[in-house]
């Protein structure tokens, strides 16, 4: 049977929106307005009004800027975020450069191990790193014993910087590695022919061409560190903005305007960081004629380069994997105090986790599954409306959903408390105290990840397939259900797994919304356990469970993407 060429099929006259698509767009807009825009707008509104009235005022911001604690917290947040970017770059640059520019045996393993810090909640890593690098941790005990001095790795702001840079450096590693692979190496060869080599070649040619990838990762690190709540709290650093916002609302109450002012400052800082990273690239040309393989091949390292390169990689990986080793040891330790390693080992902590704390795991599975499901439904719908219709204003749906990236979790949590605590059910229960509110907060926080996965999957599907189905009599709804969604399956599953795994360890928003232990998710349970020395063993065991859960989801996501790409390759 002869196939009909795509050009022979009569094309649809327009991609105009149907009444059903308009209704779908309005429903999505209503959802985003209710659970994203309204809570954030409420936070901003309260920050600019007098307490107990609706009168516009700037006095709250005046009080903020003249209070020494808040100004110190603002400076500390900027300082910690900027220094975390610097140290994250120190960790990421050698790994990215060595694995993409040299014949480096084990490059795939290095890249995989470099990704591992992201699958552990940073505040859990903070506890584990204290065991190795704290004032009485393994490293300092050995330094004191051998050389008679200690180093303040984990004291005050230094500890927050250390933990955050180790945890978030994979954002720079992933983006910078991709950018380095896409550079036309013929440009490097031309520079070498003109006498440039070594660090000068990297500084003048390679790194500037990879700048888009570097800035994308660096801006993510800055925003994530600036917004983080639990890590400073666990390290007893309270003079930073996110902890101050949390402490004002939880200690003084949701009527206190200063928590909302701090929240507005957090939003402005996040948006500004993203805008500056985009602005820095505007008007500059980073295009190359070939992606990757053209020109200069990967270079073999000399013996001394190999010794230095492998030594550097080993030290960095040992450092960034230390939290995982510390957590694993602590989960089996009976006592680990004032000694380089635990005194003895036990399985009792895991017994306690699967006995008393199984509710945390059960709640997490329920919440993260529901949040991931909501994100996938919204992601597919928004991607379809943006890419397949001419609906007026459809881009606003994409922008609104993506805006959640710039909203700190603590701000969203405060917004939900203020907006929905006064909304009560017939039995008088506040809406903000229901577990479903936690699910909605998680869904909003992780929606951008699922949306990008669905968007990318739909972009790879030719519209001619849908046109052919409709020309054969299928309705739009039938076409979407039978043609579009099955072809997007790989992207949909990857988006779900990404949303699920990141929602499973989200704490900033949920810390504000949990009303009782029976409704608490895993991340909240981890935070509670880690508050006391007696609870850190079971907390570490619960942390290992969290890491295994997220690692399994991450592996599944990569497997799904790989199989999807192979299937498409065979189809072509």
Automatic annotation (TrEMBL):
Entry annotated with the keyword Cell membrane: yes
Domain of life: Bacteria
PROSITE patterns in alphabetical order: ABC_TM1
Domain (ABC transmembrane type-1): residue spans on this chain: 74-273, 361-557
Localization, UniProt: Cell inner membrane; Cell membrane
Pfam short name (any one): BPD_transp_1
Keywords, comma-separated and alphabetical: Cell inner membrane, Cell membrane, Membrane, Transmembrane, Transmembrane helix, Transport
InterPro entries in the record: MetI-like, MetI-like_sf
Membrane topology: Multi-pass membrane protein
Main location: membrane
Chain segments annotated as transmembrane: 21-48, 78-98, 110-133, 159-180, 201-223, 258-276, 307-336, 365-387, 399-417, 429-447, 483-505, 540-561
Similarity remark: Belongs to the binding-protein-dependent transport system permease family.
Protein name: Iron ABC transporter permease
Species in which this protein is naturally found: Bosea rubneri
